[in-house]
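Morning F.,

Quick status update on the modeling queue. The single chain you submitted on Monday has been processed. Sequence for confirmation:
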Amino acid sequence: MLDSNFLRENNARHSWQPMGHPGECRDNPPPVIVEAEGNRIRDLDGRQTLDAVGGLWNVNLGFSCEPVKRAISDQLARLPYYSTFRGTTNDKVIELGYALREFFAEEDMGRAFFTSGGSDSVETALRLARQYHRIRGETGRYKFISLRNAYHGTHFGGSSVNGGYRFRESYEPLLPGCFHIPAPYCYRNPFDESDPEKLAAKCAAALISEIEFQKPSTIAAFIMEPVLGAGGVIPPHRSFMPAVREICSAHGILLIADEVITGFGRTGSWSGSRHWGVKPDIMTIAKAITCGYFPFGAAMISESMAEIFESDKTEAGFIGHGYTYSGHPVGAAAGIACLEETVRLNVKDNAAARGDQLFAGIKALKEKYPVVGDVRGGHGLMLALELVSDRTAKTPADKATVERIHARVYEAGVMVRLSGHNLFLSPPLVITEAEADEILAALDAGLAVA
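Structure tokens below.
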């Protein structure tokens, strides 16, 4: 490795960071993470911190999962790459496809289309949704509906169904035919409704209204995160996703569950869809499929949807879509090992327990500090603190205050994610009770400087 002086001098000078302003990053270089072990990271200055971000919602098994590292190393030695485009495949992708079908059998997912990550998986799902209707002769179904505050990645398709302006405004005009309804966000919604069940019903009614306005025969799919993640960690009432499923089924609309964050145990259930008792038509997965050890993802296709494609006798079923790294053998090997460890450790139960612990803790912090306007959680290890300068008016806290709190939390030994005026918690699903207490103590220290 080049010496530390070189790294400090060149930090943010020759590459741009995702989700950041290039000039601001250059003027305020971020911490340089150089090592990780267990659930902790170490920066260039030698400061060790507990990672309450879990990499980026994805390091579910922590940074020291030897079976995954060994699977990657062994596969690199045996077959580092070969294409899975029609004509060739590899043994590991066959094995992983079978394992995922078994794992998501309760959701009725029967096929996997492998990708390089979450944005690719969303793009794949949107394309296959349109193609599904074309195969069936409903060529007019091309529109998509999604939730405001939703996040579905950074490709043009995903950006078009995103519900946050920060991920859209600089890149418009986006994909035509994408429409949004209010999210079941109790703290901020156009209905001025704070009761979760009533709000869920109003959002479901808004979906019906939008479908009727657009005409059902023009809509291909509704896409939603079972628990909204990057848009603010917004868990809906338990009635919402089942209601959406019923509405979509009644109008011949596909339901795409974006499980890039919620898949593989983060909600305290093996999937967000299973958490709410719903069977979608497509599930997008990534992140925890390889726990950050290798870029990988998939769009999972339901058995009934797969049958339409596979029984087609024309060229309409030809999938003219894919990625150079679809079904990468090293990624597939990592996925197999991650799935085995995920099940062996039964991480969903620990996610539920530690999530309850952290949610109780941040609710107590809200009572202690007026700067905390809202806290969200209660469904595994997905939590948020929304910071405000005025609780009554719900005025978002100013940037300087939020950054000061975030920096103090880091100095206190914990990395949390800063997004707008929110602090997000998405630690590895293998964190301990003591580590959850560390997170709460660091948040306490950070909020004290508000």
